[in-house]
Amino acid sequence: MFNASTVRTRSNLSVGAALLLLIAIACLALRILHVVAKFRGHAPDAFGDFNFYLYAFSVVLHDPARLYDHDALIAFLQGMGARSTGDDIFYAYPPQFALMFAPLAQLTPLAAKIVWVSVSVVLFAVGLYLLIRMAYRGGERGVGLLLVAVALLSFPLVEDTYDGQSNELLFFLLVATFALVERGKGYAAGLFLGFAMAIKLTPVAVAGLLLLRREWRTFVIASVVAIALTLITGARLGFDVLWHYVVSDMPRLNGMALAMSGGGAPMNNAVRGAMQTLSTTFGMPMSAALLSIASHALVAAACALSAYLVFRRHRDNRIDYALAAMTMLVAYPILEPIHMVLALIPLLILLGTAFEARGEQLSALAPRWEMLFAAVVVVLLFFAAKFVSYTVAALIIYGLCVARYFPPVALGRQQAYRAG
After folding, report:
1. Where are the transmembrane segments (predicted)?
2. Contact between 165 and 51 (Cβ < 8 Å)
3. Fewer CB within 10 Å: N-end or C-end of the chain?
4. Looking at residues 168-186, what average pLDDT do you find?
């Protein structure tokens, strides 16, 4: 016999999800019109951050020593007609990133941008499909629509595409890693994670947490792939380029990034940026030394807690993946709004698993409170970063992930009984 109340609830969810999806599509359509207008107005400035990548792709093969040369970058931008030039513009990705995508330099700037953005959007769509399949295993179609709507309502996603950034690529690589580990295909997962580690340093945190979960196959293959790509880069460009990036270029570029907009939020939504902004707002600005010590202490505490929880392993593997992805973001020294595209991974896992076990308390928080906090995050990510809004969103998601490791005692016993 059908439960009329349950049927009504599912129907309301489907309708609400469909309406939310329509709103998300409408917002995206407006942004697309903005992009088209910018292309018509001045094409070289469209997808402006990709111009920095294109510079790296253009010089990496014939003059790698100029990869992080600010004056050469400015000259390149002026040569292609870009109007966005200044001291706050620089290329900061590892040499491996430039070498892997150097073939794009063979195209015209416009063609390279179209290829890059188109592939990024497709990869994000594939990653979103894999993530939703992993996050929700129930049979309600409305939940899937809701998760898609939440993802598309994310302003960081829109901003990442608008700037021609790389976080959609990283999103796909991390989701593919988690999805393959979940299916028991650890070796294949390592290929994706290794590529992510080679082109950007921060996924090393995810690899470390997977190692604590005893995902040996994934960790070993990821390490081999990352090392192999690094050796190939060194052989092609010269190992002095890699060494100089680690000991000189990276610290200098991080310092430049911290200096942008005063080093605080909303440009830098990391713990450090939020502390700097809040202390200044309340009239008690922290010194650089105290700011560094305090932020490093808080980040170290968060990482240590994550390491302990992941080592214990959650009964639901997906929560470990969510915490690993969120810990990577919390540990970022410079968390720009566009990086919050990756926060969709833990957010959708939290929402999907909650709907999957509707009526059960999976967390230290009651279901209604967990959903309320998740809704606050969705609202915060709908708008552009203001003050410390994205820092708050990141900390809420991290807190929701941690709370999943401390369900009520009765539920823990019930789960243990079922497992036994």
Report:
1. 12-33, 114-136, 142-158, 187-212, 219-239, 288-311, 323-351, 371-398
2. no
3. N
4. 96
d(CA 210, CA 206): 6
CA pseudo-torsion sign 337, 206, 197, 68:
positive
Task: Give me the helices (H) in 80-203, please.
Answer: 95-100, 109-135, 141-152, 155-163, 167-182, 186-199
Sign of the Cα torsion 102, 108, 111, 117 reads: positive
In a domain, 4, yes or no: no
pLDDT (mean) for 181-186: 93
Task: Quote the CA–CA distance of 17 and 32 in Å, as a whole number.
Answer: 22
Q: What token pair was written down for 216?
A: 């040996």
Q: Which residue range is the domain that position 56 belongs to?
A: 10-419
Is there a domain that residue 227 lies in? yes
Q: For residues 238 and 14, what is the distance between their CA atoms, to the nearest angstrom?
A: 56
Number of domains forming the structure of the chain = 1
Provide the whole-model pTM: 0.91
- Is 398 part of a structural domain of the chain? yes
Per the CB < 8 A criterion, the answer to whether 322 and 206 are in contact is: no
pLDDT over 50 (residue 131): yes
Distance CA 245, CA 377 (A): 36
Share of the chain above pLDDT 70, in %: 91
In a domain, 233, yes or no: yes
Query: Quick one: angle between helices 109-135 and 50-59, nearest 10?
Result: 110
CB-based contact 374:398 (threshold 8 Å): no
Q: What token pair was written down for 159?
A: 């901003």
